[in-house]
């Protein structure tokens, strides 16, 4: 079945550095990928939607210069947290919409998520 | 604007009990609803996905139902085990965007 892989699953970085999280669709092409973030004891919230080859669309309140999203190919989207601060520590998860002409073309698959800790 | 609520926020039960987790949503125009499990410090695992045209889905000891008209879904866990201890999230999909509930933290006591 379709699989979405996120890497790394865990990452610890120092304040002020940048960290990149990758989201890959392993056996399908994804026209659209979505990035979510979970604050402690809160629900997952959509951060941005990225379409291959175009700029990401960010949700209200999400700093696009801080959370850089690149969707350079149909199988890979990256989220880069720039100049990370401890308050950026969170659970980040991506999902991908399959590019298919059959009924599964509207299916969205989730990655397992990435835990970021900024120290 | 879609809002998703999960009740209870936390639940502690003795092993072997059957239990029900509730999820309600305000906009019935959904594409599907998905239940996830999240273990502390670990990733998200999809448990069951119910399409808007379906009433329920079953997988092992799990059964999820969907009543779109009333904006409700339930996740039924039969014969609970300590290994079921986790946070359970429901998520409702509109066009492509999922709206998540805040989750129910389940603890099954041995």
Structure description:
Chain A is mostly beta strands and 119 residues long. Helix content of chain A is 0%, strand content 54%. Chain A is built from no helices and eleven strands. In chain A, the strands form two sheets. In chain A, strands 2, 4, 5, 6, 9, 10 and 11 form a seven-stranded mixed β-sheet that branches. Chain A is globular. Chain B is an all-beta fold and 110 residues long. Chain B is built from no helices and eleven strands. In chain B, strands 2, 4, 5, 9, 10 and 11 form a six-stranded mixed β-sheet that branches. A five-stranded antiparallel β-sheet of chain B has the order 1-3-8-7-6, with no helix packed on it. Chain B starts with a strand and ends with a strand. The mean pLDDT of chain B is 94. Chain A binds chain B through residues 6, 9, 32, 34, 36, 41-46, 49, 93, 95, 97, 106, 108, 110-113, 115, and chain B through 4, 31, 36, 41-46, 89, 91, 93, 96-103.
What would you report as the Rg of chain B, rounded to the nearest angstrom? 13 Å
How many separate helices of chain B? 0
Question: How much helix is in the residues of chain A?
Answer: under 10%
Described by its quaternary structure, the protein is heterodimer
Query: Which structural category fits the helices and strands of chain B?
Result: mainly beta
**SSE string of chain A, helix = H, strand = E?**
EEEEEEEEEEE
Distance between the termini of chain A: 37 Å
**Spans of at least 5 consecutive residues with low confidence of chain B:** none
Share in helix of chain B: under 10%
Question: How many helices of chain A?
Answer: 0
| Helix and strand composition category of chain A | mainly beta
Query: What is the 3D form of chain A?
Result: globular
* N-to-C order of helices and strands of chain B: EEEEEEEEEEE
Percentage of residues in strands of chain A? over 45%
Mean pLDDT of chain A: 90
Largest sheet of chain A: 7 strands, mixed
Write down the overall geometry of chain B. Answer: globular
The chain pair with the largest interface is:
A-B, 22 and 20 residues
């Amino acid at each position: 079945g379709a699989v979405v892989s996120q890497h790394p699953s865990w990452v610890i970085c120092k304040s002020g550095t940048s960290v990149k999280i990758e989201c890959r669709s392993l056996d399908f092409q994804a026209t659209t990928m979505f990035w979510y973030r979970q604050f402690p004891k809160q629900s997952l919230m959509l951060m941005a939607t990225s379409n291959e080859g175009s700029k990401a669309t960010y949700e209200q309140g999400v700093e696009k210069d801080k959370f850089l999203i690149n969707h350079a190919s149909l199988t890979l989207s990256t989220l880069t947290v720039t100049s990370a601060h401890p308050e950026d520590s969170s659970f980040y998860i991506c999902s991908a919409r399959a590019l298919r002409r059959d009924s599964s073309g509207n299916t969205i698959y989730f990655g397992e998520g990435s835990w970021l800790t900024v120290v | 604007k879609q809002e998703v609520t999960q009740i209870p926020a936390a639940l502690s039960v003795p092993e072997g009990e059957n239990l029900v987790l509730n999820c309600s949503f305000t906009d019935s125009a959904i594409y599907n609803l998905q239940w996830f499990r999240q273990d502390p410090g670990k990733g998200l695992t999809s448990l069951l996905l119910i399409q808007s045209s379906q009433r329920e889905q079953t997988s092992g000891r799990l059964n999820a139902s969907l009543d779109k008209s009333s904006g409700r879904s339930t996740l039924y866990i039969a014969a609970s085990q300590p290994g079921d201890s986790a946070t359970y999230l429901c998520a409702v999909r509109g066009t492509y965007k999922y709206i998540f509930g805040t989750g129910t933290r389940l603890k099954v006591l041995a």
